[in-house]
Amino acid sequence: MSKQYEAVIFDLDGTLIDSMWIWKDIDMVYLKQHGYALPEDLQKAIEGMSTTETAQYFKDRFEITDPIAVIKEEWIEMAWDYYAHVIELKAGAFKYLHKLHRQGIKIGLGTSNFKNLAELSLKKHNVLHLFSSVRASSEVAYGKPSPDVFLKVAEDLGIAPEKCLVFEDT
Fold this sequence. Notes:
This protein is of the alpha/beta class. The protein has seven helices and four strands, in the order βαααααβαβαβ.
């Protein structure tokens, strides 16, 4: 890697791990439990939103009466086993993360997912220890596509944003 970058910041879902498919399934099951079918435009509408923004979107669009915290807890429960046992790293990710680490490049993660699910997945794949910062969009003012979560990770790493390379799939 060129020394023009001092840090690499990754998105998680769809970038480091192959997990995008489970969220459509979780949304379908969740909405069915609340008497709704999965709208065709839902995945595009919520793409990049933080978990809090997504829960608020569900409350507003589907008139869900549960508090945001309850909605998010249900989603975590539904996804936990997938992240702990099923979801795999993308091909080459393990090797690339270790290469960056050996080269002294700081590594961070900025995700729209739940922080505990991100850490669970990274730990499962024995790479969590390579990350100097793991942040979720719910920890910053605005979710993606705003760069807030990536800027927060850069701040945590002590690296100027222009010296960071970001891998993001959305």
